Automatic annotation (TrEMBL), chain A:
This is PTS sugar transporter subunit IIC. It comes from Lentibacillus cibarius. One of its GO terms (cellular component) is plasma membrane. It is found in: Cell membrane. The keyword Transmembrane helix applies.
From TrEMBL, chain B:
Pfam families: EIID-AGA. Keywords: Cell membrane, Membrane, Phosphotransferase system, Sugar transport, Transmembrane, Transmembrane helix, Transport. It comes from the Bacteria. This is PTS system mannose/fructose/sorbose family transporter subunit IID. It is found in: Cell membrane. The keyword Membrane applies. One of its GO terms (biological process) is phosphoenolpyruvate-dependent sugar phosphotransferase system. The keyword Membrane applies. NCBIfam families: EIID-AGA (TIGR00828).
Length: 258, 271
């Protein structure tokens, strides 16, 4: 089992990178099913379990940086368990879910713990040290690999059922709490954007965008088009005012009127 | 105003197609150092860095540009090459740095939304659906068909948009050169409308508590908070973070605060 566990860990490490870096989407369960099936010598079962997981988890995509339950670990563990234990694909989904949710929480922690690195990056930027910036990104890739390989290795090596019991022994409120925090986390990014862009004279546009989304439930693209329309209006208004040729007759008109 | 300009204002020589292609490959690492403080900033700087080094031979200018490009950045990874193209064209012309920053901030939000809709909610379900339906029949071509179809469009978008963005940037921006202030103003207007929308759409902050008294049940989220104002908690929390940032709190503290809020909310069973 050691060789298989190591090969599966390697695969999980590679697709753990692919989920955030590269994004060729070989990390989707439908591909993992084939590869894990190859490693464990049962391609057909692997394909069926992977395909089933894919159809069920189709909507698990990272929208606007929010973390869905992790399809990398879920797909690998689900397929491995389906093949090793000879379970039917639906039961494989059941075992994959606690892992997918637990890893979702761990990813939130990983992305939190990487934040201090950004201050190092600021220093490198200040010194125009491009090698430093590159090193930070390669370090991130390495961490993603190790993180996913390690998490995939243990349950396959020690038996998915036992490992699932451990995952379930983590108090549910901690796992839930991390996923709640992950949902709120985008607020920090948006607040940082506001810190860069927001001036008092622009507050109204923030309100407009918020109202369009919160009350009218408009998609972001529609809101950006409305924003663009306002910006164009504003642009041509100001252009007219600054253009002396157009400005002069207008003033005359006003004086004439009075 | 002087600090908004580069020390060496002479436009740099243009980038060759080969150099642009090299940058597309680097853009695959956009999320390598993803984190909750700057999101894709590290990967963004990594992706355009060879371009910046080609443009800014002056070390002080390079350092200025690198510092600006380490600011918060987040967009859809498949569409980022469009922004890269436009920004490199602007850097090359040594545009006002405030305008460069404005364009970057104004394009990343809408492209993020477009990309999610296009790739994650349309392309992925179609291609993965085809692949999975073959796979559940035990056909090994399923995953292969999926990967080929998905990536033909994925890489097509990345390479095509880099060239398109770069050309659009060079042409459009030279026309707008005299009006950089209007451009950054327009960019702020679009950008802030989008951020307002993003707060309401993507910050998920809900109270999951039902108040019971005899026969009456009161769902705090749907019956109270949503009635007062939808997306009230996301807005309030974002403004709280904004205020704390302005007070000089570090983003790290605020990330920690958010984790604690999530854990407490979950422990008390109200979130």
């Amino acid at each position: 089992m050691l060789t298989e566990s190591i090969l599966i860990a390697l695969w999980a490490g590679i697709i753990g990178i692919d989920m955030y870096v590269g994004l060729t989407h070989i990390h989707r369960p439908v591909v993992s099913g084939l590869v894990v099936g190859l490693i464990l010598g049962d391609i057909t079962t692997g394909l069926i379990v992977g395909g089933t997981l894919e159809l069920i988890w189709m909507g698990m995509v990272p929208l606007a940086g929010a973390q869905p339950p992790n399809v990398v670990i879920g797909g690998v563990i689900g397929t491995a368990f389906g093949i090793i234990a000879g379970e039917d694909p639906k039961a494989a989904v059941g075992i994959a879910i606690p892992f997918a949710v637990a890893v979702q929480g761990l990813i939130t922690l990983l992305f939190t713990s990487l934040a201090p690195l950004m201050h190092k990056a600021d220093q490198y930027a200040m010194d125009a040290n491009y090698r430093g910036i590159e090193r930070i990104n390669y370090l991130g890739v390495a961490l993603l690999f190790l993180f996913n390989a390690f998490i995939a290795f243990l349950p396959v090596f020690f038996g998915a059922e036992q490992a699932a019991a451990y995952v379930e022994s983590v108090p549910q409120w901690i796992i839930d709490g991390l996923s709640v925090a992950g949902g709120i986390m985008p607020a920090i990014g948006f607040a940082m954007l506001l810190k860069i862009m927001l001036k008092t004279e622009y507050v109204m546009f923030l309100i407009i965008g918020f109202v369009l989304a919160a009350y009218l439930e408009m998609p972001i693209l529609a809101i950006s088009l409305i924003g663009l329309a306002i910006a164009l209006y504003d642009f041509f208004q100001n252009k007219d005012k600054q253009d002396p040729d157009k400005q002069a007759p207008r003033e005359e008109e006003i004086t004439d009127g009075i | 105003m002087a600090s908004n300009m580069y020390e060496n204002p002479t436009p740099a020589t243009g980038m060759k197609p080969k150099q642009l292609r090299h940058l597309v490959w680097r853009s695959l690492l956009l999320q390598a150092s993803f984190n909750y403080e700057r999101m894709q900033a590290g990967g963004w700087l990594y992706s355009i860095l060879p371009g910046l080094r080609h443009i800014h031979k002056n070390k002080k200018d390079l350092s200025k540009a690198m510092k600006d490009h380490m600011e918060f950045f987040n967009t859809h990874p498949f569409l980022v090459t469009f922004i890269m193209g436009v920004i490199l064209a602007m850097e090359e012309k040594k545009e006002d740095r405030e305008a460069i920053r404005g364009i970057k901030v104004a394009t990343m939000g809408p492209l993020g939304g477009i990309g999610d809709a296009l790739f994650y909610l349309t392309l992925l379900p179609i291609t993965a659906g085809i692949g999975a339906s073959l796979a559940v029949d035990g056909n090994f071509l399923g995953p292969i068909v999926f990967v080929l179809m998905f990536n033909a469009i994925h890489f097509g978008a990345r390479f095509g948009l880099m060239t398109y963005g770069y050309k659009a940037g060079v042409n459009a921006i030279s026309k707008l050169k005299e009006g950089t202030q209007q451009v950054s103003r327009a960019a702020s207007i679009v950008g802030l409308s989008v951020v307002g929308g993003l707060i309401a759409t993507y910050v998920s902050f809900q109270i999951d508590y039902v108040w019971k008294s005899g026969e009456t049940e009161l769902n705090i989220q749907t019956d109270v908070l949503d009635k007062i104002m939808p997306a009230m908690l996301p807005l309030a929390y974002t403004l709280l973070i904004y205020w704390l940032l302005k007070k000089g709190r570090s983003p790290l503290t605020l990330i920690g605060l958010t984790v604690v809020v999530g854990l407490i909310g979950s422990f008390l069973g109200i979130m």
